[in-house]
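not sure who needs this but someone in the group chat was asking about F-box/LRR-repeat protein fbxl-1-like from Branchiostoma floridae so here u go. i didnt clean anything up, its just raw.
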Amino acid sequence: MVRSLTESCLSCLACNLHSINRVGHYLATRHKELLLEWLVYHDRLTPEYLPHITYHLFSSGLRTVHFYKCQQVTDAVLTQLGDCGCRLRSVTIHGCSEVTDTGMLALLQHQDELEVLELRKLPHLVTDWAHAVMSPVLQHLDLRGCTNVDAPAVCEVVLSNPTISTMILAHCHRLGENINTVVQRIAESLNTTLEHLDVAGDHCLSDASLTAISTHCSNLKRLGTFSILPISNAMSLSRYTCHIGLVACSQSSMIRV
């Protein structure tokens, strides 16, 4: 397989941070972000190499972080990243199973310019991380697959961040029997700002939840659920809309308003 010139350059720089004098001083912010993503993806955050990464790449200029399926991303790494003074606009941490509330608190507590926050498949995320999410410009929150995130955390986040337009809670199983309480709080807190809500999981929305959505969320364009809604539930929504199209699949259904 032939590698691109970009990939070759990234790998060369990423593997030689320790031997290039003051390399971080000459790198543009976007190049630092790409190098971090490459290093994480290739599991290069070893104890021996991590000090070179933090010294050369962790800087106040960082705006985007994308960490994908790396067990070397720990609370300690996120704490160091938060301590570098970066003002992040986009954070994606996906499938990094060593991350807990402690690390997310350390990273997010001063991120008031955050627009996109994607925390996917983080099994140790529960409640406390939500205390740190307070951005007046947050638009996109994706918690899909965070099986232990609880209702108080979600309710706190939407109350503190009323600018969220996309909210994805697919397969957040711990919400379970509290899903309707959560959905009603989302509808009341996000109101007309909400455009996309996905609550796919092993539960069904109640009439009260759909009534809350249709009453408060007049700009909602998509509502994702796991199973086909009972007719009475769909009618609760249709009472407040001019047109509803229901698209049902074997494992999920999507109401389009």
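also The chain has one domain: 58-256. if thats useful
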